[in-house]
TrEMBL record:
Protein family membership: Belongs to the membrane fusion protein (MFP) (TC 8.A.1) family.
Leader sequence segment: 1-24
GO BP: any one term: copper ion export
Keyword DNA repair: no
Full protein name: RND family efflux transporter, MFP subunit
Keyword Acetylation: no
Source organism: Massilia yuzhufengensis
GO cellular component: membrane; outer membrane-bounded periplasmic space
Alphabetized UniProt keyword annotations: Signal, Transport
Source domain of life: Bacteria
């Protein structure tokens, strides 16, 4: 008795597998659906096309100002803000005065400038005098070379003093005026390095300021960018140079960079895109939705989501063949909105059911309906 039971247990999986395969093969057979039945059940078909409307990925994005179009104005010297010359949202040109800073650190720097300018002037005169004496044969070449070397050293010290004042925020014409008149300035005026819009003013008259603290933020908002957080699984589909559309907005954007790093917490990849010229009505910080056509791949088809029927974990499409339909198994590669990308044994021009699929599934399974 025991050997027979053991044999039956061994044969049971084989029998079940055979039955499952037979059942699956039976279900995959064609089933007849007449034109009258299709009309009554509102079943419509459409031919498979390689150039059909692609699957569009939709992702949230935030409008931002590109880093190379922003300017953070800060003072290189400790001091006191005496005048704030602009207001938030004000449009400024390159060179527009923004804020005036009074600083005691300017005095020593200007003193070094005047000393360097005076020594350079004396060294220049000495060099010219020694050159004239050398040309007349009165002095040796060595004295001429020493005078010229002294002049070069003092010129270098003067350039260094000018550079220190430029770094402190003093403009070139202002530095030359100090040299020419000998009159020291007690304040510097910080100006816009490029045209733009004043985004924020974080300083008030009478406020003490320290070096490298942001005082005014100027941005060029005529050209904006997008920051997109894409799931890691979708990041591979994006390409630099790809065109994006903005849902509900006119205009397009172009992908400029794709981060090679995945954010630990969100498991997303940052994708940056520049908004193309002609796109208006967007503001930095605004949240929008971008749409990106999934690149076509060999052996895949983009079809309506309503064309796919599911049976447990398997997906099928119904292909019209004469007066019958055939359930063809497919693999769902990706989906977005009302479009889905599938691969399977399909050919261009074959007609697939795009509506009334629930009724076809019920007929295929031998049921009266149901999903």
């Amino acid at each position: 008795m025991r050997p027979k039971v053991t044999l039956l247990l061994r044969l049971l999986p084989v029998a079940l597998a055979f039955h499952a395969n037979s059942y699956a093969a039976e279900r995959q057979a064609k089933f007849t659906v007449t034109d009258q039945q299709m009309k009554a059940l509102s079943i419509e078909t459409a031919p498979l096309q390689s150039g059909a409307q692609p699957v569009m990925l939709s992702l949230p994005a935030q409008v931002s100002v590109p880093p190379n179009r922003e300017q953070i104005v800060s003072t290189p010297l400790s001091g006191l803000a005496t005048q704030v010359l602009v207001q938030p949202n004000q449009t400024v040109r390159q060179g527009t005065a923004l804020v005036r800073i009074s600083s005691p650190e300017l005095g020593p720097l200007q003193l070094q400038l005047l000393q360097a300018a005076s020594r350079t002037n004396l060294a220049r005169k000495a060099s010219l005098r020694e050159k004239a004496l050398f040309d007349e044969g009165i002095i040796a070449r060595r004295r001429l070379e020493e005078a010229q070397a002294s002049f070069s050293e003092n010129e270098a010290a003067l350039r260094q003093a000018k550079a220190a004042l430029r770094f402190s925020g003093m403009a070139g014409p202002q530095i030359e005026r100090v040299i020419a008149t000998g009159k020291l300035e007690d304040a510097i005026t910080l100006s816009a390095q490029s045209a733009g819009t004043v985004v924020s003013v974080d300083v008030k008259p009478g406020q003490r300021v320290e070096p490298s603290v942001a005082l005014i933020h100027v941005a060029q908002v005529d050209r904006l960018a997008l920051e997109i957080q894409a799931p890691t699984a979708q990041a591979a589909a994006w390409r630099t140079g790809s065109k994006l559309t903005l849902q509900g907005r006119p205009g397009t954007a172009t992908v400029t960079s794709i981060s090679p790093i995945v954010a630990t917490g969100s498991q997303t990849v940052v994708i940056r895109a520049s908004i193309d010229a002609g796109t208006s009505g967007l503001r930095p910080g605004e949240l929008v939705t971008v749409q990106f056509p999934l690149p076509a791949t060999s052996g895949s088809w983009d079809i309506p989501l309503s064309a796919v029927a599911h049976d447990n974990q398997d997906a099928y499409v119904f292909v019209r063949n004469g007066a019958a339909f055939e359930a063809r198994p497919v693999k769902v590669l990706s989906s977005a909105g009302q479009r889905v990308r599938v691969s399977g044994s399909l050919r261009a021009g074959e007609k697939i059911a795009v509506s009334g699929v629930i009724a076809l599934k019920g007929s295929w399974l031998g049921e009266k309906g149901g999903d």
